[in-house]
Design brief:
about 0% strand
Length: about 170
């Protein structure tokens, strides 16, 4: 793979990797460093990429595995990485209702199975396509769709119970 081919097929994905890497590692600064390291690792394996059937999937999987390796090396649990996220956004970010809703959704996410949470974050927060999610998590697209559906259903169910005015839960 030439420099130009690498630039046009792999390096262009670095911007798309950023939300996932930042979320997993917990900061934008760490994500920038990690993406540089990931690109170096992939550049070193470029000869194997020429005939790879799914280069973007390989890049996403490599990035996710690299992040998990960094967390393991530093003995950090990946499950707490979503705490800095703003799940729900609004024009008035300081509005207490939006802050409360964001806190509730983050708490719900902590209760979801790991794969459901990861697919939800990658799809609804990071904005990845199902093919990218499936590649990064090494699962089938259909399974990713099932996981997102279950995660959304669970989140919706808990929110409905939380905000159910008839039962006075609010």
């Amino acid at each position: 793979m030439t420099k130009l081919e690498f630039k046009n097929t792999v390096f262009v994905l670095s911007e798309k990797l950023f939300p996932m890497v930042s979320r997993i590692l917990g900061s934008d600064e760490k994500a920038e460093d990690a993406i540089q390291e990931i690109m170096i690792k992939i550049w070193q394996k470029r000869s194997k990429l020429k005939n790879h059937p799914n280069i973007s999937g390989f890049v996403f999987l490599t990035a996710r595995n690299y992040c998990l390796d960094v967390l393991r090396k530093n003995k950090i649990e990946p499950s707490g990485c979503a705490s800095h996220l703003r799940i729900i956004t609004s024009k008035d970010e300081n509005n207490l209702e939006w802050q409360d809703l964001n806190r509730i959704v983050l708490e719900i996410l902590k209760t979801l199975p790991v794969q459901q949470k990861e697919v939800f974050l990658m799809r609804d927060i990071d904005g990845y396509d199902f093919i990218e999610i499936a590649s990064a998590l090494n699962i089938k697209q259909a399974h990713a769709r099932v996981l997102i559906s279950r995660a959304r259903k669970q989140i919706g169910s808990v929110l409905l119970k939380t905000y159910d005015y008839e039962k006075g839960a609010y």
